[in-house]
Recover the amino acids of this structure.
């Protein structure tokens, strides 16, 4: 009879106690969400005020979330309204909601963005009246925050890096990374003159490629299902193609408005129905 000990599989499994076997998974830094999937967390807004402006005969709604942690909204409601009044009307048809959002701390760390476009959905609290439809979101930031970028960049990242330089951000090389120092003025340049125009470019692309060519049939009464089908059709196009369209649109409108003297324009600090502390550093 062999004196060899029975096989103990735990001694041969090198993954035990490592992340490969799930160890530490519960301690991962993740963005909490009350919704069914991580993509929806940015619709979750806290205390907010609302405002309405009339731009070129259209009523535009603004949802302004109360800021905290020293953050402010770099773009004011009047800034966005003025810029919107110089953008071709057909390019933002149906896009009449802007959300100035205060990101949570984990969101800023793990998924910081200048802004984004929602092609549909709901925003707000039922007791205050929900806002429905497409919306452009712009995120508040600290007025002098800093971030870093890898100095080794692919062509798309290099193009974005050059745009940051044109926006006026102070950029210095530190070993294998670039340190980007922002200010309230340069953040506004990026969000107002680039991000807003870029997201409108996405919406113009949506209108041209799916919504106008595929009108909702008269017998189809469920608009939600119709818009879901439009989203699926739009998402079938390569992301690079969609991004290229939005970038080219933003560059074209930016050049046109710059040549005509519309932009740059001074920050419009008028708050007839909003809290100035959400926009002006040091007031809260």
């Amino acid at each position: 009879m062999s004196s060899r000990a029975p096989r103990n599989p735990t001694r041969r499994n090198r993954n035990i106690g490592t992340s490969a076997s799930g160890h530490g998974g519960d301690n991962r830094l993740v963005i909490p969400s009350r919704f069914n999937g991580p993509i929806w967390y940015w619709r979750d807004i806290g205390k907010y005020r609302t405002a309405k402006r009339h731009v070129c005969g259209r009523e535009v709604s603004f949802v302004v979330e109360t800021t905290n942690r020293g953050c402010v909204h770099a773009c004011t409601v009047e800034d966005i309204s003025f810029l919107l009044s110089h953008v071709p009307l057909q390019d933002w048809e149906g896009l009449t909601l802007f959300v100035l959002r205060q990101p949570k701390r984990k969101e800023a760390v793990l998924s910081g963005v200048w802004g984004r476009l929602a092609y549909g959905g709901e925003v707000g609290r039922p007791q205050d009246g929900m806002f429905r439809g497409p919306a452009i979101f712009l995120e508040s930031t600290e007025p002098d925050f800093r971030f870093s970028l890898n100095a080794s960049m692919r062509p798309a990242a290099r193009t974005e890096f050059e745009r940051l330089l044109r926006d006026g951000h102070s950029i210095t090389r530190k070993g294998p990374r670039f340190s980007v120092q922002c200010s309230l003025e340069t953040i506004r340049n990026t969000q107002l003159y680039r991000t807003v125009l870029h997201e409108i470019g996405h919406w113009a692309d949506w209108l041209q490629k799916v919504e106008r060519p595929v009108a909702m049939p008269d017998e189809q009464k469920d608009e939600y299902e119709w818009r879901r089908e439009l989203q699926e059709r739009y998402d079938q196009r390569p992301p690079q193609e969609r991004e290229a369209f939005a970038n080219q649109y933003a560059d074209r409108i930016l050049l046109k408005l710059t040549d005509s003297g519309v932009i740059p324009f001074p920050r419009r600090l008028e708050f007839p129905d909003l809290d100035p502390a959400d926009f002006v550093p040091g007031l809260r």
